[in-house]
Amino acid sequence: MIICSCQSINDKSIHAAIEWMRAADDKVIITPGKIYRALGKTPQCGGCMKLFIATMRTNTKFGVPVELQGLRSDKKRRTRHEG
Q: How many Cβ atoms are within 10 Å of 39's Cβ, its own excluded?
């Protein structure tokens, strides 16, 4: 199924990019931008983004790695940094 008509990206391409990224680095945070770059493309109008993200979420390897989950759970202890 075509997800991004501007760049002719289908759901199989999105899933293949996620599988490739997860195989290369099991701790990578996968974003739509990284998928576009992995496919050698760039987003144009953004009209597909809801469907693009929904497609990403259906992949079993998409989730945030366990080691990185909950890092921001303690919002009160966040420190401000200069700049």
A: 17
Q: What domains can be seen in the chain, in order of their start residue?
A: 2-62 (1.10.10)
Backbone angles phi, psi at 36, to 5 degrees: -55, -45
The Cα–Cα gap between 68 and 73 comes to: 11
Mean pLDDT along residues 9-24: 96
Asked whether the beta carbons of 62 and 30 are under 8 A apart, the reply is: yes
**What is the largest distance, in Å, between two alpha-carbon atoms of the chain?**
46
> Rounded to two decimals, what is the model's pTM?
0.77
One DSSP character per residue, 27-56 reads: T----HHHHHHHTT----S-TTHHHHHHHH
CA distances from 29 to 5, 6, 77, 82 (A): 25, 25, 23, 25
